[in-house]
């Protein structure tokens, strides 16, 4: 399958990606447990129907040592037992932040309060940033029609 547009071949896209990657790099100092960004990246990508990012973040998470069973349950995390309170709060905030237009009030107060209980200010800033960055990448890849399935773990490291 060919992309409908080779976004990553464009010099303009190269500049955009450089800035998005810089924003993502800043999150590394937020103090989030390593598992949380992996779960967030996967869940937002699933919601947005971004096969390219779903493939990438599943493979990168497994490569980083994440349990494939947990990753397979991310789409049904509310009914699954292997997630911590912090992971559940992060996944709930990810869903609300990804589907922000679906709610008349934006982020539900209960979802926000749960995230606030689990994360300090730096971690919360990092979590919000991861959610924003992956949503941007999902949109770039879905709009360009980037095909899924060909990613190798660590390919863009």
Structure description:
With 157 residues, the protein is mostly helical. It has one domain (33-144): AhpD-like (Up-down Bundle), CATH 1.20.1290.10. It is 61% helix and 0% strand. The protein is built from 7 helices and no strands. The protein has helices at residues 11-26, 35-47, 51-63, 68-72, 85-98, 109-118, 121-144. The radius of gyration is 15 Å and the shape is globular. The model has no long low-confidence stretch (mean pLDDT 95).
Instruction: Give the class-level CATH name.
Output: Mainly Alpha
Largest sheet: number of strands, sense, barrel closure: none
CATH fold description: AhpD-like
* SSE pattern: HHHHHHH
> How many domains in all?
1
Structural class: mainly alpha
Task: Provide the gyration radius in Å.
Answer: 15 Å
Secondary structure tally, helices: 7
CATH level-four homologous superfamily name: AhpD-like
CATH architecture: Up-down Bundle
Distance between the termini: 24 Å
Helix proportion range:
55-70%
Extended strand count: 0
Note the topology.
Elements: H1 11-26, H2 35-47, H3 51-63, H4 68-72, H5 85-98, H6 109-118, H7 121-144
Helix pairs in contact: 1-7, 2-3, 2-5, 2-7, 5-6, 5-7
Organism: Glycomyces endophyticus
Protein name: Carboxymuconolactone decarboxylase family protein
Domain Carboxymuconolactone decarboxylase-like: 25-96
Task: Please name the defining characteristics of this protein.
AhpD-like; 157 residues
Write a brief structural summary:
With 157 residues, this protein is mainly α. Helix content is 61%, strand content 0%.
């Amino acid at each position: 399958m060919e992309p409908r547009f080779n976004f990553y071949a464009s010099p303009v896209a190269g500049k955009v990606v450089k800035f998005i990657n810089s924003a993502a790099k800043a999150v590394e100092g937020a103090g989030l447990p390593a598992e949380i960004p992996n779960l967030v990246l996967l869940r937002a990508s699933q919601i947005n129907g971004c096969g390219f990012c779903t493939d990438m973040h599943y493979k990168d998470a497994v490569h980083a040592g994440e349990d494939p069973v947990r990753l397979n349950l991310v789409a049904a995390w509310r009914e699954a037992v292997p997630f911590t309170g912090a992971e559940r709060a992060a996944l709930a905030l990810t869903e609300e932040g990804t589907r922000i237009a679906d709610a008349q009030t934006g982020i539900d107060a209960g979802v926000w309060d749960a995230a606030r209980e689990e994360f300090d200010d730096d971690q919360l800033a990092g979590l919000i940033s991861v959610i924003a960055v992956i949503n941007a990448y999902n949109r770039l890849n879905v709009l360009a029609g980037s095909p899924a399935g060909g990613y190798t773990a660590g390919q863009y490291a």
